[in-house]
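Predict the 3D structure for this chain.
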Amino acid sequence: MATLLACTALTGTAFAQEEPQASDGNAEQIVVTGSLGALPTADVSSIFGFDKTIVETPRSASTVSREQIERFGITEIYDLVSQSPGVFTNSFFGVGGALDIRGTPGEVYFRGIRRLDNSGNYPTPIAASDRIDIVRGPASPIYGPSKTGGYMNFTPLSARAAGGKYLGTVEGEFSYTAGSWARNVLSAQVRGPGKIGGQEFGFSLYGQVEDSGSYYRNMETAQTVLQAAFDADIASNLRLEFGGMYHNYKGQQNGGWNRLTQDLVDNGNYITGQAQSLDTNGDGQISHAEARVANLNPFGGFACGGNPFAASITAACFTNSALNLQNVGTAKLDRRNTLTAEDDKLDNIAKTAYIDLIFDAGNDLEIKNQLFYDGYSHDSENQYGFSQFHDSYVIENRIVVSKKFKSDMGTFSFQISPSIRYTNFKHGDDFNYEYFNRVDLTKGYDARSDRLLSTECNCNFTTYNIGHYTDYGMAALADFDFSFGLDITLGARYDHIEVTTADFAPLLENPAAAGSAKTSKGGWSWSASANYELPFGIIPYATISRQSTVVAGQ
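Done. Predicted structure below.
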């Protein structure tokens, strides 16, 4: 880590030194020095809220610049694993909503404000990002309750050029990407200055449309990403920034293979056979009632009673279990055949918007008001027996008052931030009867394996919950950057959360289990960090923190 930090501290812009051609006729020599810019040295205020570089910030973090995104061909969340240590894929049935950071599910922030939880509702788009910060460890107290493993913060494409000024002219780019398995991605971007009356402003518009297939059968991706950002100087000391993102995603979850054995993994030998019919009313699907009459266990029994798990899955097991497979045998399975059915779907529409007002009061005093909205509507259906829907949104308003003092002793910065965050949710899940092993993947789904889903009949949900909660927060942060090399960062936060929630009994499979609650609770978060600048750009640090966390059932 020390070596990495030292390299980061010494990065610079690459340039060519050209030597004139020697008189003896030897070819001229061109020497290229500097950095590729893969480790940016710009200020990264998204980590603690102070304008410090990665090197100067006492937190384990990585920044993925737009140059890195383009240079390494990063197109999805999974690609970020190669750019940051301590980060792993967090695939929810093939859908990358976030990353696992230090062994726990990470969170996603947009311009420093936490988005709704996305454990796998849709793949988080990254193409419209100017920079992605991956922070390991709890977020700054300014940013509110967060998970302890870490988070990703997305900085969208800006309406301003480097240095904070508007672009001199309009510029744009257009790209089309084609690839195997019918991959088709079309994107376009335009940025530049504008003027309405006498008011100058900057704008950035981005759009991406994808229509792609997949290696796996019954899977495809159709999505549209639209993003806009606008900046305007209302007065010499007052700036307005606003914009948003619209993301319409249609795809599927991929449950992988069922009837999994080591022989299937090693040799492709799959256990075939049709499950007994439970479709007593002849509608072509297994209803919740038909499953209950057949006395099938919830989840369908992942194993057959043996131990260890994998050893219990045999042809005899499937024949003698409640599945009572008929015509049991083996066949070579095409690797492209998985649990994904022709009618499976994962549809999600996410909408994000922000409005920031930044007032420069002079004498290094700044007051910023951030208003943020994030919401999505989500529908997921898997014919083996899982479905869900979500209809949630969050509105957060945060005020950050920043003051900086400079003297011969160093630079001392302070922040105070009151905030209020309101989350409204309605979601239902259907998972009591997931029968992964009923479908024969060499045949596909039929009346023996296709379950009637709660989202299809609007009935028999395992959970159906409606509610809202409000988080009232107050945070303070201080940074003491002494001129002799010592830097101490201290922060504290208190959150008071009020929750109201209720089950919607009429649509539950078990209405008697419905309940409701209304309660409130408060909690403290704090952090303390210290780092010291040694020679050669090496800056060791230590951090200790206590973090309050809100985990929503989304």
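Confidence is low (pLDDT under 50) at residues 1-17, 298-302, 305-309.
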